[in-house]
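Module 6 notes. Inverse folding takes a fixed backbone as the condition and produces residue identities as the prediction. Think of it as a translation problem where the source language is geometry and the target language is the twenty amino acids. Below is one complete input and output pair. Work through it position by position during the lab.
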């Protein structure tokens, strides 16, 4: 073109100017010499590494190889999803889901029997396209997983093979236009009809109806175009007697894709992001559901007599058990948020490592850059260990265990709110390059924004965490002892500081005479719990590492930074409550800066580079040009 012809002549006429002489600057604050672990640390020895658990390695390798080389997924042959219009993006997501499912890596039944194995292949999809990850999560986890969790062996045999293979795309219809977090308040009705001549061979069916506009099923992922079957939550009535919310398997479309009689479906349309998922709204008008398609783990209706029975003595116990069976979706949303934040940090840290600025060899010559990326990395280390702890607890506890509900709610809320904060910092730390879609951070910010809302609104989840903590503490609570002479250089002392805040907030809420007026304290308590647990798990990781090893030293520095940063975020509380004097609190900022410098590990960020490599994100998923050895490669001229 014209530019190719003119550009060499321009350079001949106007040779590149000589670089300006160095000029003294006060903006940069060079960090001290890096700690010794920076030179010797092997990132693969860190406990946050994706392969740290050393489980299902064959599946991991096969999935990563497939996603890197299959024509539908390969960077060399596929179209970036962020360049597609909505219909094309949805077609791409469905084709990718079907191709992924064809390998048989996912068995919805293993969500019940081996959750770690079930999750292994699915978690890699968020590195490709979050729309694909959510489409897969709705199909496998929410639709198939609900059938596996809440249904019988007969339900599993009838529905799961076609869901596992994606021959029958599925969705999950719980949320209504007027009822999001308030599942007990949903309005969709399922009335037992015992009249002869209806759809089931026994002559008994449930009749589903949408009684009001507020009862329309809303935001149902997969419903607008593709889903042929859905798990539907509705209020069950037997002979006019209300039994509470129950789950049913309902056919939405026939094998040819035609919407079934009595069902109306409409596309929700364009969203802020995640447009590869075909969210829709659903109405039911006298839709007959065979009596055997009630998912009957917690309640059943006898096909012969129409008698209702449940192993739970109360409606609230039955409802709690039903909701507890849906923990897997919350866990996967939290894990995806953590993994996305790892990817954002990997891009931003590599770019900062290679990008000179204002006569500094890298962006890590600036304290503000070190602060944003080092603290973000420490927070992700804590959250990854929290997710591992939760997965460990799931191996020995039922998913209906109240402690599992507490852990999963806290992890999901903290992980998604942290992702929102840290990814935004990563975007800004990359300057204008962070706004370029091919540098990966921007699409994640847009598509994942909704994760603070779905699978439980974060504020509501933190309120349930606080309620559980107050209940676990019991009525006989002693006033927490104020930690003596807090040592800001000791992560153990910082742990005592964070634990003091948690216990103080538990006591304040337990003594509250107006819980509604103190809901803001409930959110603070949820954060205090995750902060304390995160630091505790970091220190456990230090203790588990070989004594004197580079991994132990690195993790101790990360733990110290995490504790300081979380204390700094609540300095007002610590001054008012007493653990920190105004003078000591005034020194926290400098301590955080020192800890950031240690974790950064030099003016080029060698320490942070190793810590983010320790996430174990497969290199095939890091496609951002600015994350390569030459950040200038982003220019195609």
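Target side of the pair, the amino acids:
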């Amino acid at each position: 073109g014209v530019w190719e012809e003119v550009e060499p002549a321009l350079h001949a006429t106007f040779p590149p100017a000589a670089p300006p002489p160095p000029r003294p600057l006060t903006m940069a604050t060079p960090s001290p010499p890096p700690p010794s672990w920076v030179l010797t640390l092997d990132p693969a020895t860190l406990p946050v590494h994706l392969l740290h658990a050393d489980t299902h390695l064959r599946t991991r390798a096969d999935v990563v190889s497939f996603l890197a080389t299959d024509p539908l997924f390969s960077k060399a042959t596929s179209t970036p999803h962020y360049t597609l219009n909505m219909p094309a993006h949805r077609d791409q997501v469905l084709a990718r889901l079907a191709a992924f499912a064809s390998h048989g890596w996912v068995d919805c039944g293993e969500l019940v029997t081996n959750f770690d194995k079930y999750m292994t292949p699915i978690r890699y999809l968020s590195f490709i396209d979050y729309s694909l990850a959510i489409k897969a999560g709705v199909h496998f986890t929410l639709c198939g997983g609900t059938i596996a969790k809440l249904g019988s062996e007969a339900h599993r045999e009838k529905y799961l093979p076609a869901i596992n293979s994606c021959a029958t795309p599925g969705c999950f219809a719980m949320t209504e236009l007027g009822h999001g977090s308030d599942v007990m308040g949903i309005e969709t009705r399922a009335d037992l009809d015992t009249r002869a001549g209806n759809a089931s061979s026994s002559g008994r069916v449930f009749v589903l109806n949408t009684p009001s506009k507020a009862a329309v099923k809303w935001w149902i992922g997969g419903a607008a175009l593709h889903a042929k079957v859905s798990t539907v939550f509705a209020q069950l009535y037997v002979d006019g007697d209300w039994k509470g919310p129950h789950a049913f398997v309902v056919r939405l479309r026939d094998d040819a894709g035609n919407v079934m009689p009595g069902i109306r479906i409409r596309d929700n349309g364009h969203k802020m992001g995640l447009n590869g998922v075909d969210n829709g709204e659903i109405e039911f008008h006298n839709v007959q559901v065979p009596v055997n398609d009630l998912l009957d783990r917690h309640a059943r209706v006898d096909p012969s007599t129409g008698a209702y029975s449940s192993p739970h003595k109360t409606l609230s116990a039955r409802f709690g058990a039903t909701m507890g069976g849906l923990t897997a979706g919350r866990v996967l949303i939290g894990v995806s948020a953590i993994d996305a934040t790892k990817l954002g940090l990997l891009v931003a840290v590599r770019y900062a490592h290679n990008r000179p600025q204002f006569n500094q060899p890298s962006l890590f010559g600036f304290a503000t850059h070190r602060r944003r990326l080092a603290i973000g990395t420490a927070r992700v280390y804590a959250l990854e260990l929290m997710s591992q702890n939760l997965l460990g607890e799931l191996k020995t506890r039922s998913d209906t265990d109240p402690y599992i509900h507490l852990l999963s709610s806290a992890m999901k809320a903290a992980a998604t709110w942290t992702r929102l904060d840290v990814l935004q910092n990563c975007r800004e730390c990359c300057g204008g390059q962070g706004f370029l879609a091919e540098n990966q951070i921007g699409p994640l910010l847009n598509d994942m924004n909704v994760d603070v809302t779905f699978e439980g609104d974060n504020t509501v989840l933190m309120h349930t965490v606080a309620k559980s903590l107050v209940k676990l503490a019991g009525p006989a609570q002693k006033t927490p002892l104020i930690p003596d002479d807090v040592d800001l250089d000791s992560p153990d002392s910082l742990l005592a500081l964070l634990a003091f805040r948690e216990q103080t907030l538990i006591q304040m809420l337990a003594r509250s005479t107006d819980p509604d007026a103190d809901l803001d304290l409930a959110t603070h308590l949820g954060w205090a719990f995750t902060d304390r647990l995160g630091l505790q798990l970091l220190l456990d990781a230090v203790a588990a590492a070989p004594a004197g090893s580079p991994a132990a030293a690195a993790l101790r520095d990360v733990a110290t930074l995490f504790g300081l940063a979380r204390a700094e975020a609540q300095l007002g509380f610590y001054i008012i409550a007493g653990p920190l004097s105004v003078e000591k609190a005034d020194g926290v900022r400098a301590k955080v800066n020192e800890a950031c410098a240690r974790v950064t590990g030099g003016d080029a960020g060698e320490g942070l580079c190793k810590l983010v490599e320790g996430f174990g994100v497969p290199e095939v998923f890091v496609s951002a040009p600015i994350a390569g050895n030459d950040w200038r490669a982003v220019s195609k001229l």
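Reference fact for the lab report: Residues 1-26 have pLDDT under 50 and may be disordered.
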